[in-house]
Specification:
It is a single chain. The protein is an alpha+beta fold. It has one domain: HIT family, subunit A (2-Layer Sandwich), CATH 3.30.428.10. It is 36% helix and 16% strand. It has six helices and five strands; from the N terminus they run αααβββαββαα. The chain has a five-stranded antiparallel sheet, with helices on both faces. It is globular, with a radius of gyration of 16 Å. It starts with 7 loop residues before the first helix and ends with a helix. 20% of the residues are buried.
Amino acid sequence: MDYLWTPWRYRYITDATKDDRCIFCDALAAANDVASLIVCRGTKNFVILNRFPYTTGHVMIVPLAHVAELAQCDAATLSEMMQLAQRVTAALTTAYHPEGFNLGMNLGRCAGAGVTGHLHLHLLPRWAGDTNFMTTVSETRLHPEDLAITYDKLRRALQP
């Protein structure tokens, strides 16, 4: 059995000060989608690039409302979240030709949530062999593309 370790995440997950502000609400309040890395806005949700991605194209789909639990989301928010996931998956397929995708939520600190007060759905494109030893050995991740380039590609791919 293979094990993949992400030791850099421990410092982030256990940082008590990171919940002082909500990164998602701050991104919305900034009213600057390019600087905030918001690639798409819906009626009830928005799509934002992860500033600390596991892989190129790692985005999060986030409700506009500051809610921590699925039970706090109405059906329209959850429906649009899945519709945006479908749309982003298609856009990432066009732009990057991944071989698969990971989608998931970490609800609560013990589940690995980095932002505990504002739920979000992670969507990551995946390729065979897209892991490497650098992360395990030196807490370094290798990405072939700058976030600004990823932002431009994905934003263009999401245009109607």
